[in-house]
Automatic annotation (TrEMBL):
One of its GO terms (biological process) is fatty acid biosynthetic process. Pfam families: adh_short_C2 (PF13561). SUPFAM superfamilies: NAD(P)-binding Rossmann-fold domains. CDD domains: ENR_SDR. This is Enoyl-[acyl-carrier-protein] reductase [NADH]. The gene is fabI. The keyword Lipid metabolism applies. It comes from the Bacteria. The active site is at 146 (proton acceptor), 156 (proton acceptor).
Length: 264
């Protein structure tokens, strides 16, 4: 097989099932010849990830819960032992207590604020640091964010605050690692029905609002996020770093609902 990712090896973190954004990205990368390793959070998800990995020709699966830093260390030890180097990583990990993904942001608890930040934001920095050590010939790192980082989206609450910090991390990491030829970017995806997406209260209404009001009048698919991510992870974007790239059918450029929506 030949393709723009031929000869490149990368780690995918965040596949839970075949609806996961990370799965859309994995398919796009594998179709272009990339060799992939996958992490999974716990044995139950591992059972789902294993056949998916096999579908894209991978038997390299590693358990990892980012709350446990020893498990993060161990995935990079395994990658060093098996591959010796790394060309790219995908961080598609987010979590917050769903009881706080509804109602007022002001009611966020200290415990959930901290946990959300560690899992959804700081884990990217911890992973980037370890991955950079293996990116001996430069590389590309990608995380996933959402427009709730800069705009108020109902119920997104503390996740929006974590995504704002995640996007700032992208810029700081891009500056840290740029001199070593390592690029760091984020895709800001529009709403998609996934396990994590379903945790946000009224997720269906938000999805439908986006479909009706985005310039392209549709929601995006994991395959569309996958092909844009392929660009950011490949040499096609060799001059791009520190970027937050929207893949949201254009919703982020709008300032008010469409006139059709208003008059219906
Ligand atoms: P998903 O549920 O398929 O993926 C979330 C992943 O995070 C899962 O694989 C889960 O195992 C992992 N995860 C959560 N806590 C973890 C932990 N402690 N350790 C290791 N892994 C952990 O949902 P998704 O929508 O594909 O989410 C992927 C990313 O995309 C998230 O960062 C999410 O915020 C972001 N995103 C999602 C949407 C959307 O509408 N679905 C939109 C924009 C951005």
């Amino acid at each position: 097989m030949t393709g723009i990712m031929q000869g490149k090896r990368g780690l995918i973190m965040g596949v839970a099932n075949n609806h996961s954004i990370a799965w859309g990205i994995s398919k796009a990368l594998a179709a272009e010849g990339a060799e992939l390793a996958f992490t999974y959070q716990g044995e139950a998800l591992g059972k789902r990830v294993k056949p998916l990995a096999a579908e894209v020709g991978s038997d390299f699966l590693l358990p990892c819960d980012v709350e446990d830093i020893a498990s993060v260390d161990s995935i990079f030890e395994e990658i060093r032992a098996r591959w010796g180097r790394l060309d790219f990583i995908v961080h598609a990990i987010g979590f917050s207590d769903k009881n706080e993904l509804k109602g007022l942001y002001a009611n966020t608890t200290r415990d959930n604020f901290t946990r959300t930040m560690v899992i959804s934001c700081f884990s990217f920095t911890e992973i980037a640091k370890r991955a950079a050590e293996l990116m001996v010939e430069g590389g590309s790192m990608l995380t996933l964010t959402y427009n709730g980082s800069t705009r108020v989206i109902p119920n997104y609450n503390v996740m929006g605050v974590a995504k704002a910090a995640l996007e700032a991390s992208v810029r700081y990491l891009a500056a840290d690692y740029g001199p070593r030829g390592i690029r760091v970017n984020a895709v800001s995806a529009g709403p998609i029905r996934t396990l994590a997406g379903a945790g946000i209260s009224d997720a269906r209404a938000i999805l439908s609002w986006n479909q009706r009001n985005a310039p392209l009048r549709k929601s995006v698919t994991i395959d569309q996020v996958g092909s844009s991510s392929l660009y950011l992870l490949s040499d096609l974007s060799a001059g791009v770093t520190g970027e937050i790239h929207f893949v949201d059918a254009g919703y982020n450029i709008t300032s008010m609902p469409t006139l059709e929506t208003l008059t219906k």
